[in-house]
Amino acid sequence: MTILFASDLDRTLIYSKKSRGQEVNEQELSTVEWIDEKPVAFMTNTGIDYFNRLPSDINFVPVTTRTATQYNRLTGLFHKREKPNYAIVSNGAVILEDGKPLHEWSDKVKKQLQQECTSVEHVMPQLEAYATKEFVLKVLEAESWFVYMIIDEETFSVEEFENLSQIFYQQGFTISHQGRKLYIMPNCINKSTALQFVKERIGAKTVIAAGDSLLDFDMVMNADHGFIPCHGEAVLKRDLLPSHINITNSTGVLAGEEILKKVNDFLL
Predict the structure, then answer these.
(1) Is 248 in contact with 258 (CB distance < 8 Å)?
(2) Per-residue pLDDT tens for 251-266?
(3) How many CB atoms are located within 10 Å of the residue 80 CB?
(4) Following CA atoms 155, 156, 159, 161 in sequence, which dihedral angle do they give, to the nearest 10 degrees?
């Protein structure tokens, strides 16, 4: 039986210095990403050990909002384990097969963006009014797939989030707040649909999925077994969670360790 383990990366399996929490010290951490030789993302030593212990016949599929370039910075994650055959990046807009984008998939997404008027060219003019607001530090594009803002969390209010959500929901977008980033994501760019494509391509019968944000919610809900870190944005929908979805007891980087332990336990 082919088993697929799909997981979000940031704030699910790997953590920045700010998001990792205070429960572990530096000696208990392994670096999985460097930028300009500076360590920027971490897992616990125990967590990376659990990751490396995942059976070789399990299809591990990273599923991330990171672009392919950002994903490829995670050299420490695959130090003792081969890079997976498949990775879903740019929130599902791009599927990498053996490190190369599947054009048949991305072309399909591009066509849908134009049909639904949810491409970057449609959304950017609407954001001009927000670009001057106090809480917005930067407005960025992710390889022309979607838009995200770097925000000042101290001045960003619940009211602003709800206002943005209402405006863009009616136009076919999902809004997700993850730390200093606020994503404005076309609904046709999503992790769940891309994962279904990979599942069918490799003939997987069982899917295990993990993720922390609202951008991960459908992917986790549609899996046979799912995990959500208790610090995650997706926990806001805990009332909708069926019994096969588990919320971790731990927060921060220890939540990532807990997820990997439970996946290993399930696979024994």
Answers:
(1) yes
(2) 999 999 999 999 999 9
(3) 10
(4) 170
